[in-house]
């Protein structure tokens, strides 16, 4: 009998204290909660994705723990969710920290990619532009940029992800979402997909477009 080889996977490390809620963050509990997840998943993954992160410190602490545990030094991607409940003068994380500061911090800890997810495509577009400029100023263009927006209306500051059903934006049809994808690519994004409310039909439109390029 032939041995079955288990394929390795890309692992998502979700926010430890809830999506969107930087105010619930407890720095002194990160190691307690993250280490069992990292140790359990480490043998089976080929890439770490710390996603839907609302603040810089959680990603920094989780990356440090991954570095201690993962002797293979697999790539580490960081994906942030952005403040989209009200207009801001520049793209911000939901913690209020700037995207510029987040990019500089991620460069300092050696991530392979910086992404933005579970936010409005409009603000993600602004964040990509800021990220591209900041990475260029750091001479760090080897760090990839990515995006996967959601289809929710703007979320209030006290929102709790997965606490119930959310309305979806009727205007974010597959062709409309593809328009954002094209702009993200133009601005430097190379890792593109969809988050909550972006369905298979949206991904099919992206795939069809990419096949023509």
UniProtKB/TrEMBL annotation:
Requisite cofactors: Zn(2+)
InterPro entries according to UniProt: HCY_dom (IPR003726), HCY_dom_sf (IPR036589)
Keyword list, A-Z: Metal-binding, Methyltransferase, Transferase, Zinc
Keyword Membrane set for record: no
Amino-acid positions noted as binding Zn(2+) in the UniProt annotation, renumbered to this chain: 118, 195-196
Domain Hcy-binding intervals: 1-210
PROSITE patterns: HCY
Listed PANTHER family: SLR1189 PROTEIN (PTHR11103)
Protein name per its UniProtKB record: Homocysteine S-methyltransferase family protein
Organism, scientific name: Marinomonas rhodophyticola
């Amino acid at each position: 009998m032939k041995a079955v080889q288990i394929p390795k996977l890309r692992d998502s490390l979700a926010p430890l204290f809830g999506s969107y809620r930087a105010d619930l963050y407890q720095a002194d509990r990160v190691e307690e909660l993250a280490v069992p997840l990292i140790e359990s998943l480490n043998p089976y993954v080929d890439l770490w994705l710390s996603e839907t992160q609302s603040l810089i410190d959680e990603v920094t602490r989780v990356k440090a723990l991954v570095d201690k545990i993962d002797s293979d030094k697999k790539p580490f991607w960081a994906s942030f969710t952005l403040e989209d409940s009200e207009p801001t003068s520049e793209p911000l994380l939901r913690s209020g920290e700037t995207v510029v500061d987040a990019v500089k911090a991620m460069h300092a800890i050696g991530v392979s990619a910086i992404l933005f997810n579970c936010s409005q495509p409009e603000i993600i577009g602004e964040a990509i532009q800021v990220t591209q400029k900041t990475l260029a100023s750091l001479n760090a263009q080897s760090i990839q940029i990515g995006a996967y927006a959601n289809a929710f209306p703007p979320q209030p500051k006290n929102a709790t992800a997965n606490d119930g059903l959310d309305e979806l934006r009727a205007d974010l049809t597959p062709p409309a979402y593809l328009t954002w994808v094209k702009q993200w690519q133009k601005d430097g994004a190379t890792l593109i997909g969809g988050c909550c409310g972006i369905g298979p039909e949206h991904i099919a439109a992206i795939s069809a477009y990419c096949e023509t390029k």
